[in-house]
Amino acid sequence: MFKVIQRSMGPASLSLLTFKVYASQKKDATHKATVKVNELSLYSVPEVQSKYVEEPRTELEESISNLRQYCEPYTSWCQEKYSQTEPKMKSLVQWGSDSYEFLQNAPPGFFPRLGVIGFAGIVGLLLARGSKLKKLVYPPISMGLAASLYYPQQAIVFVQVSGEKLYDWSLRGYIVVEDLWKENFQKPGNVKNSSGNK
């Protein structure tokens, strides 16, 4: 058995050896002209003038092209509206998630206060029977009064800011009415001459 293993190991071990082979030129050979790579027939490319020819459109391609041209104004309008509403929707989603987090971790006593403020709004709605204007005015006023009992500092800030805005709006309205008055009633044709016929 030892002889079989020894004989088989010899040729197998020779395959693992590496040999270096050095090539040398023959001294008797004459120098022939060298051939460049682009001169070989394998690498030669025939010079042909190519020309692009557009294939005629099929009926399907023509109808799809017409459909795309027809829908282009609508798709551009939709893309424009989407780009305008995307930031608003993101801010709305952010506000909703912030509100949800606040309601999950609400401060103590928040929900009873919210119930009282909501009940005040329902009472204001019941008091506003008959007129649509009363239904628009009474519930916010009663809710505002109930909220000002629980949050007096925020109510003071709200009244100050809203008072400034109301004052600003009234000044703007006064300026607009004054300009309209000057344009319509002080034109030379509208002013009557005091020395007119009697």
From TrEMBL:
Protein name (database record): MICOS complex subunit
UniProt subcellular location: Mitochondrion inner membrane; Mitochondrion membrane
Stated role: Component of the MICOS complex, a large protein complex of the mitochondrial inner membrane that plays crucial roles in the maintenance of crista junctions, inner membrane architecture, and formation of contact sites to the outer membrane.
InterPro entries for this protein: MIC26/MIC27, MIC26/MIC27_animal
Subunit record text: Component of the mitochondrial contact site and cristae organizing system (MICOS) complex.
Database matches in Pfam families: ApoO (PF09769)
Keywords, ordered alphabetically: Membrane, Mitochondrion, Mitochondrion inner membrane, Transmembrane, Transmembrane helix
Family as reported in the entry's similarity comment: Belongs to the apolipoprotein O/MICOS complex subunit Mic27 family.
Superkingdom of the organism of origin: Eukaryota
Organism: Pipistrellus nathusii
Membrane-spanning residues: 110-128
